[in-house]
Amino acid sequence: MTVKHSKIEILRTSLTLGLTSFGGPVAHLGYFKSEYIDKRKWLDEKTYADIIALCQFLPGPASSQVGIAIGMLRGGLLGGVMSWLGFTLPSVIVLVLFAFFYQSLKLSDATWISSLKIVAVAVVAHAVLGLGKKLTPDKPRIAIALAAALIMLLFPSTFVQIIIILLGAGLGYLLFKNKAQTKLASFAVPISKKQGMLAFSILVAILIGLPILARVFPHMYIQIADTFFRVGSFVFGGGHVVLPMLEQEIVPTGFLTSDEFLAGYGVAQAVPGPLFTFSSYVGTMMNGIIGAVIATGAIFLPSFLLIVGALPFLSELRERSSFQGMLTGVNASVVGLLLAAFYDPVFTSSILDGADFGLAVILFALLHFWKVPAWLIVIIGVIAGEIIHLFV
């Protein structure tokens, strides 16, 4: 197969996944395994597991980063772009259209918008429990999570979130560096260490340069790029954790109201593909199509740079117990940040009476115990909200 055909194949395959991969990051990894490993045999299961491990260590959307990495292994840097584009584009289109629909029809008081906010309560509660079970299995990590949640609730700001993540890394180093896994297998990747260092250098340069540029030239486009690039660079724990960081950047500054923010988050649960495409909705609400393009590109760009930067060093980093310990602490602090976000803004902005709480509990039960997929939870939540509205 020629390189050209390989790129087309990557785009076509990832587009199929982007149209059908409902259920969140864990489900995405299952879809990837079925398509890339079992069906197409683009790589073996061991390599796939190593890529997943790498992406769990990095900030950003883990499932998207896995897809990008597979695309790079298949077709180089352009292959990674094709893989991301196909997987991401369907949900971007849906969320941009919803933003225009919301704005043109002034839906802030619609019953089904309130129902979407209640859906967000159930989904975030499920995410907190799921991440908590995986990332805080013992008392020290539970303590880190609880401390992170308390600090965030007392001093809510993006700067405090970054401090919490850094403190979590420090505590992880002190507490868990001697409990790291050993005998982790290595594998070769088609990216040089020089390319990796260049990618990291670009990431740091943009992180430093964009805030300065936004201050010197306070244009809306630069502000959007600065906000979403920074969020994409510091979101540990996957798509759900983008909620608290974006909320702190967008709602207090008046770009979106809390209702507008949570309505889009609710719709994001109903579409396939990565939850980070929620940025497309926010960008559209802020500044139309151009805002959507800038926001989407800015929030995903760190994922590309981090994958290119980290792949050549994966084997060496995973062998270091100090690195594993730091990430253990970071992951625990992420659970605390998500717990704080569950209370404010998700719960406080969505649950207004007993009926709202009852519906949220039912939706959570369907999601958590009956394993109903998230997209179906959205439909059930909207229909049930309309029915309740008729009788209450």
TrEMBL record:
Keyword tags: Cell membrane, Membrane, Transmembrane, Transmembrane helix
Subcellular location as annotated: Cell membrane
Residues that span the membrane, as ranges: 12-31, 84-105, 111-131, 143-176, 196-216, 228-246, 289-314, 326-343
Membrane topology: Multi-pass membrane protein
A cellular component term, taken from the record's GO annotations: plasma membrane
InterPro entries with a match to the protein in the record: Chr_Tranpt_l_chain, Chromate_transpt
Top-rank taxon: Bacteria
Pfam families the UniProt entry points to: Chromate_transp
GO MF terms, alphabetically ordered: chromate transmembrane transporter activity
NCBIfam families hit by this protein: 2A51
Family: Belongs to the chromate ion transporter (CHR) (TC 2.A.51) family.
Protein name, per record: ChrA protein
Gene source species: Virgibacillus pantothenticus
Source lineage: Bacteria, Bacillati, Bacillota, Bacilli, Bacillales
